[in-house]
Amino acid sequence: MAGTLAVVIVNYRTADLAVDCLRSLAPEVAALPGARVVVVENDSGDGSAERLTAAIAAEGWSGWARLLPAGGTRGFSAGNNVGLRALMAAPAPPDAFLLLNPDTVVRPGALAALRGRLDAEARAGIVGSRLEDPDGAVQESRFRFPSILSELDRGLRLGLVSRLLSRWALVLPRSELPVRAGWVSGASLLVRRAVLEQIGLMDEAFFLYFEEVDLCRRAGRAGWEVWYEPAARVVHLVGRSTGVEFSDLARPVPGYILESRRRYFLKSHGRAYAMLADLAWLSGHLLWRLRMRLQRRPVQLPAGSLGQFLRHSALNLLVGR
User: Fold this and answer.
1) Which among 182, 215, 236 is the end of a domain?
2) Whose CA, among 79, 126, 274, 285, lies 20 to 30 Å from 66?
3) Rounded Cα distance, 159 and 29, in Å
4) Which residues pair with 36 in a beta bridge?
């Protein structure tokens, strides 16, 4: 197995989860010579730094894990970049970095499987894990890039249309074999150092969400491949690190998620495409609402969803907002 690997975990008020994540990494790191872990403390202000420092010392992890202050409360991309810059500036930098959420638990052999896929595919620049619920149920973690048609499909929520637009659906079919992807979930994403040296680090203008979509798109445009490795099994406690639960209908979707979505479309495709993508979603969504009303079914969405979307839409560019 060639090269070395380092793990970057960004912690913001999730110290207990991060300790569990580190505990699951201990045997994985021991099986990979030279592997190391950096936990970026994103100025949690809740005693996280002290708890993580104490845990690393008490558990005997100091030989391979260290805490790195971010120097202020920063977004997810910026926090990852703090760790990446420190590791890349080391005298012997690793040749691959695993960006790992603190709300994950790594299954045995996951790191070796990710490393193995990177070594097996000469043009693989990014490799994503199979994400699971604690009971082993598979989560979606392999995707196509968002497009006008995928946004129409998401807004309309109609089985017939979804089948007609299946070639553009955001979620790719599940696979038990290693396969290519457009992008993979940033909850557990291995990236080759050569990719970051070529395209740059994560875009810090993405506070949270869509940063891995942007990273995978930039890597693909530079000639690198994105792979999904189902043998790299990682439990993902969805929403535990971000506090965002899309199933919670009482809370609106945070504005920064929609700002990240808007930035992705503008950056990747330009102003006209971004507005058409928003118009596609909005048209589909309004038709879905009409269908729900005609069928006398409740509209089950997080509070204020439509208004929040409109406030952060690229369509506002038409009126100079």
Assistant:
1) 236
2) 126
3) 44
4) 6
State yes or no: pLDDT of 139 exceeds 90. yes
Give backbone dihedrals phi and psi of 121, rounded to 5 degrees, phi first: -115, 110
* CA atoms of 161 and 291, how far apart (whole Å): 14
- 272 and 194, same structural domain? no
What is the pTM (predicted TM-score) of this model? 0.94
Closest by CA position to 105, among listed 6, 16, 191: 16
Tell the burial category of 100 from Cβ atoms under 10 Å away from its Cβ (0-12, 13-18, 19+). Answer: buried
- Residues 257 and 293 reside in one and the same domain: yes
Phi, psi torsion values for 48, nearest 5 degrees: -60, -45
CATH of the domain at 40: 3.90.550.60
Read off the amino acid at residue 21.
C
Neighbours of 303 (CB within 10 A): 12
The Cα–Cα gap between 239 and 244 comes to 5
Output the pLDDT for position 1: 43
Could you give the C-alpha distances from 155 to 159, 173, 199, 287, in angstroms and in order? 12, 20, 33, 8
Same domain, 197 and 162: no
pLDDT given for residue 59 in this prediction:
97
Q: Residue 158 is encoded by which pair of tokens?
A: 């109609």
- pLDDT tens digit string along 266-318? 999 999 999 999 999 999 999 999 999 999 999 888 777 889 999 999 999 87
Q: Is residue 146 part of a domain?
A: no
**pLDDT digit string (tens) for 109-126?**
999 999 999 999 999 999
Q: Which of 213, 236, 259 is the last residue of a domain?
A: 236
**Closest by Cα among 28, 8, 26, 63 to 193:** 8
Token pair belonging to 13: 């008020």
Q: How many domains does the chain have?
A: 2
